[in-house]
Amino acid sequence: MKLVLSFFIASLTGFGFWWLRPSAPPVPAAVLQTDPLPALTPLTATPRARFNPTPASRKGFYNIDVVDDFTVPATKTITFCGAGRNLHVDRDWSKLFRRGFTAVDQTRMVGGQEIWTDGMPPAGWRSRLKQSQRSLILYQDYFANAFKLDWARNGEQATNTLYRATARNQAARNTIYQAGMELRGGCVGFGDCPPGTMISTFGKIFLDIENDGVSIGKKQDQANLYTYLARTIKENVSPQTEIGSIAPVPHNSFGYSRASDYMAEPDWLWNTPATHTNSSRQRGMPDDLVGKRFADVADFHMAGTYYVYPDFDYSIAHTADDSRHWLAALLGEQEVNMKLSSKKRIAWHWLFNTQSGEFEKSGKAEHPAPPAIAEGMSIFYWFTGAYGVLFWDDHKDLVPGQPTPADPGLRGLGNDRPYACYEHYIHGLWRLFKHHGDLFNGRETYLNEQTECSYDGGKTWLKYNANQIKTRSLPFVRAIVNGDQILVAATQAYARPNQAGQVMLRYVQNGYQFYTTIDLQGDQIYLGRATMRKGAGRRS
Fold first, then answer.
1. Using 50, 70 and 90 to split pLDDT, how confident is the model at 207?
2. Do the beta carbons of residue 361 and residue 309 sit within 8 Å?
3. Mean pLDDT for the chain?
4. By the 8 A CB rule, do 143 and 179 touch?
5. End-to-end CA distance of the chain
6. What is the DSSP letter of 188?
């Protein structure tokens, strides 16, 4: 086992010594099945919708009607900031909310009906969207353009950035306070400002600033600014508005799911309490911010990962500790972060590879998630106990049938992308929530790494985290228990279409003695449910 060295002073002896800290969690020991296997209870497989995915040759289009109406439970939230709402919104504006999504980002709203953008709305006008259906993403441009906060583009400016106007800068508008305070005008665009005042009435506000990396000497100022920004926003929004950020988060694995991630401590920007620096008072940091952390103010964090092309490549190996693996990354990020913070989790989901010059075929976002990955994202993610998703795309409106650009540098962008991946994603949501939404009522238990499986026909039983499953090239299985109901998702990630597999699962807790066998085919996403019976007998 690899080890890292951590030095500390033993206060009782006065001697210093090296303390060996493991760089990976211990591998769970196999539990031997000493009793005969009890009778197996079959799972009832969840139906799949019958639809013909939009062919790859038809670019810039997806069919939102590959499934029928369904909604997600009130305990979950999915914000649409994807592409192509324009394909169906004029015919049925509510269709999005009957295909699993619970909210829509401001940039995807219909002007004049869902948001008023041309001055003050007429007297009596009100948005057709409920507060819970409204979301706002604040990117760097909001701070850098409107308020001249260069800090938003370069965190190294943290030591020069004004918290709020001071005696020497009484008319300053380029302050964190001003950027947060002016959000209160958000209610104007929805026609629901409280009498005599203004306050933001978005349901959720997401921060996407991405300036978190700074040099060591500026970390404290950076932590102060993020905490002050979050608090200022909270002071200018309605009590029902939730806020969170793509960064800071407790831990970011950047899509790798390494064993060492499971030993991570909370990230400094998430966990550092605010305290005064040499110049913070002169720049307006209030004394009552001292001791507060970003983690204390945010309502949720956004641990998650975008994929790069290797994650979609079925022709390469994905089993090394540092190999990229779509499902190990999706699950591992949540497994790590849920241990570091009890805050709600909302991940960003994008169904194309993100742009990265570090990886082959990842320079442009031209590769859609393969069908099993798109569907698997929308099923397995919810087995982690996560609260929500921000479904995002770098393109907004789609115009189908556009000719392929002659310039190779313009290909694979926006209207020139195949969007059937959206159909597979929505299909996954439909399979999960149309048929099993009743299980997500707040009384469910997410087993995560405590999902107990056998890979040798029931002789031994193991509980693995996502990294351990990946590096052993085993089928992934995750389960949710609610009363006497058990819901199971399983897949052989990256398997060949004709590759068959089998895995057993058991749940022997709380008086239940449930055993079942799952048959797997290719890398399809299996979803099944059973009613468990109370059973006698001891646990092996």
1. very high
2. yes
3. 93
4. yes
5. 29
6. G
